């Protein structure tokens, strides 16, 4: 299979080039980049004049494990969707399940710290399903500090997962924030020894909880300095909230000192998680500067009326997905906080995409357009298009070249040492993977809202995954399942 993208504005963040050129794709790789390239017989030629051509976006933080959700991400320009913050256990089953069902996008998983602890603490047999993990988020037996025997048990589980190709260790520390910091250091040492990164949802900041064992973001810097591990700070915007300037300055000092710390952000003032999460207990909400009415159940659209109703929902269904409004997107000061998170030098764009739900536990559909009644967080459908609209088109904070560096090149580089196959992603050099997005720079935007969350982004004209079209002329191709696994090769 050969495709020639003719006369596009080609941006390669790997070389820093931005020029009008042709891109020839042969089989699954970029065969040539230049002007006036010949079209061999049988080549599909696409005139992309006036459009921007660049490497497909690499999403380090997607909880989408379904065809339905990946199709929304494809329309947002994503070619590789990885669940690295939470991860799944066992990863061998997660990879096998994805391969058996087929995936429009490339996929991969970290080893799940949370699921490993649940097995060691509670005897819960992991089934590689996110829904199972969400249901455990509020269980005190999972949240407590481990005994010495439990610590050895779950560290052993994680070590075996890394041997099975997990792309690092996903650590939901914010859901068990009273655990002994020594446990976090133990995980960091394991990751450093294996040569893989950690991906952490940090525990509470000291401003929100003065009694926290350690400031959540500072803990990342401490562990990176002490162990030498590569440590990725997930969604710094949502965990830092109105304290993000202090957190970014602290992380900057750690980076300047040589620590291997990276970070990500998304352009929304509301997050999403299971309603049973530790930090959503009624007594914890004031620390976030919110009330029960700032929580909305995704599946039903119910806005929680008060603390009594919140306790009822947490007791009945702790894994129920909910929207958490942590900033006011109507307020310019809060919008500026989001922009500063994204503008921070080398901040990576990552979606924290959530499953699409249709009620009664239904999380999958091969129908396109998606059947009515589905709900998710709008970041599932719109994170990358919204970031481009906000940071390039509206504020001119990023150039197009910088946008592709944040959305494709930098996230792929986080994976370079642990997953050598990632070195072929995030750029458009000859020999690179033919994961390519072609977008209309004047039209690219998100359309999903909190009330209508499954509306696809617009402006992605073509999307190739491994050289295979998934989006053609702005329309998703429902028979395309070219996604392949990305696995680590631990040292």
UniProtKB/TrEMBL annotation:
Superkingdom classification of source: Bacteria
Gene Ontology molecular function, alphabetical: hydrolase activity, acting on carbon-nitrogen (but not peptide) bonds, in cyclic amides; hydrolase activity, acting on carbon-nitrogen (but not peptide) bonds, in linear amides
Amidohydrolase domain boundaries: 45-471
GO cellular component, one term: cytosol
Protein's name according to its UniProt entry: D-glutamate deacylase
Organism encoding this protein: Actinocatenispora thailandica
